[in-house]
Amino acid sequence: MEFDLIGRIRDRTAQLRDDVRLGIGDDAAVLAVPPDHELVMAIDTLVDGVHFPHGTAAADIGWKALAVNLSDLAAMGATPAWALLALTLPPSASAHARTAFVDGFAQGFAELALPLRLALVGGDTTRGPLAISVAVHGLVPAGQAITRGGARVGDTVLVTGTLGDAAAGLACLRDGHVGVQPSERAYLSDRLNRPTPRLAAGIALRGRASACIDVSDGLLADLGHLCAASAVGAEIEVAALPLSPAVLAVLDATAARDVAFAGGDDYELCFTVAEAEVSEVIGKLARGGCRATRIGRIVKGEGVRVRDAGGGWLDIARKGWDHFAP
Amino acid sequence: MEFDLIGRIRDRTAQLRDDVRLGIGDDAAVLAVPPDHELVMAIDTLVDGVHFPHGTAAADIGWKALAVNLSDLAAMGATPAWALLALTLPPSASAHARTAFVDGFAQGFAELALPLRLALVGGDTTRGPLAISVAVHGLVPAGQAITRGGARVGDTVLVTGTLGDAAAGLACLRDGHVGVQPSERAYLSDRLNRPTPRLAAGIALRGRASACIDVSDGLLADLGHLCAASAVGAEIEVAALPLSPAVLAVLDATAARDVAFAGGDDYELCFTVAEAEVSEVIGKLARGGCRATRIGRIVKGEGVRVRDAGGGWLDIARKGWDHFAP
């Protein structure tokens, strides 16, 4: 099974890169890292019913399995290059169903990979409950990777795009989309199933952002990780949260705030920039088609504090968000 | 959960390497590939009840999950450097059981990784049915990776170690070890649960082996892959198969031959060498503590043919081994 299914995926994701000395088909892949560059790599797993709703289209799973990994490269400022894929497929499915799933999966994977010139260079297929692990590999000029650990007191905290869309999309899906307009449903569903890793933004932030993290677990949790790694605190303004018209249409203000803070699955970048450079950075990202919004600032201390629209402090612990508190 | 469990594994597998610019704890790891070297990488998944018997000790799973991947690096002649780990743990287990599993897993992983100076640089833990994907990364001097595709007509076919031990060990386990001596049981169980990737042998074969593959699916299947990649055939002698005393003690001659051919899980190297260099290569590997045995030769044509002890040809297809035939 292994060779044939991986071969189908290879045929649908074919990508010529000079730096792939040996791709799929041997015991391992052989790659050439260009001089004066460092290798950046991450791995993430999606499990059926945990990371995507059971019954999600194979093409959406293929896209998302790659996207969530590329989001980690984006947060480092890396340019994507190569991926390894470990695909576990249920033995209960017929050979025809397995092939159909693999073809759909490969199509969604390729839709994201091909425009990025990312090459799938190795893989493994096994029998078992449906799950996908992808290991992605990117490149940065030596010493230019952006980490979580460089935020300084006084830096501005920004976030790309809008927050809470995926969580709102999942909530709509669970509620049967009652009262949701088709255009909002399509937008939120796309944000849930087809997140767009902020790769161009990450690259543009090299040498400009003092710290960066991708928002996968929710803004407050992930900004909490950034603060811990940088040994600083952060203060965030509720009124500044970037929310999409679709989220505001399907959720009330409190629910919208909650998904923006802790919904997860956003795959936006949360990053810090010295105040003097904020306007330039926002302008640069905007020229690349990526909106970035100031949401707060880095302060002395630890943990994330949130100011509500009235100027008071939200009691985050009481909201059940204390898993990200210091 | 993710951060804490991966942190436990990190603490138990800590390994200092100058080339790890950034290890576990950020969105991705950052590594430096030395000049004039190429990167070699592979991924493999182990699923509970498929790749190891349900109830296998956590430490054995940790060792094996790394070993099967390192075997792929060994087949390329690569020196291991870094690994990424994706660990999926059942939500049904208690927090205490998860922690105990992770500690055992990390111990077994570290027992293999630490002497090799392999660094675990990133990971992901998720909820789901027990499964482990490991992506390993190694280094070779540029252009020196050994592939499956270089075997030439007239080359000698060799294999390291002994074949069929893991399959015999699994058979004994399933049969309740009836009539098996403790020493044989321990040997075969170790070969099943703690395979030793032939890394030193692979490195010694750089520039000497014309082709190499690791024997994971069984000798005939994997030698079949090597032949297909090299556009040649192979003829193998049953009488030459290297069988351990333990296999010969627990199985009759026919069953021993069958597990040697198609049992799988051997993680030995099958490789080809020009006839003039065979003695030198066998001697070099022996000085490194690795036995290598001539088992046949490369011929024109395609597929693997097997000569029995009487000089006739075995009908491989009739034996049910036709999945590896051309």
* N-end to C-end Cα span of chain A: 48 Å
The residue-averaged pLDDT of chain A reads 92
**Whole-angstrom Rg of chain A:** 20 Å
What is the subunit organization of this protein?
homodimer
Query: Would you count the extended β strands of chain A for me?
Result: 12
Shape of chain A: globular
Which sheet architecture does the biggest sheet of chain A show?
A: 6 strands, mixed
Largest interface: A-B, 61 and 61 residues
Low-confidence stretches of chain A: 322-326
- H/E topology pattern of chain A: HEEEHEHEEEHHHEHEHHEHEE
Query: Which structural class is indicated by helix and strand composition of chain A?
Result: alpha+beta
Percent helix among the residues of chain A? 25-40%
Main β-sheet, spatial strand arrangement of chain A:
8-10-7-11-9-12
Q: Report strand % of chain A.
A: 25-35%
Description:
Chain A has 326 residues and is of the alpha+beta class. Helices cover 36% and strands 26% of the residues of chain A. Chain A has helices at residues 2-12, 58-76, 95-116, 165-174, 182-193, 199-204, 219-230, 245-250, 253-262, 278-287, and strands at 20-22, 29-31, 37-47, 79-89, 119-127, 131-141, 156-160, 209-215, 233-237, 268-273, 292-299, 303-307. At the A-B interface, strand 2, strand 3, helix 2, strand 4 and strand 5 of A face strand 2, strand 3, helix 2, strand 4 and strand 5 of B. Strand 3 (37-47) of chain A pairs antiparallel with strand 2 (29-31) of chain B, so a sheet runs across the interface.
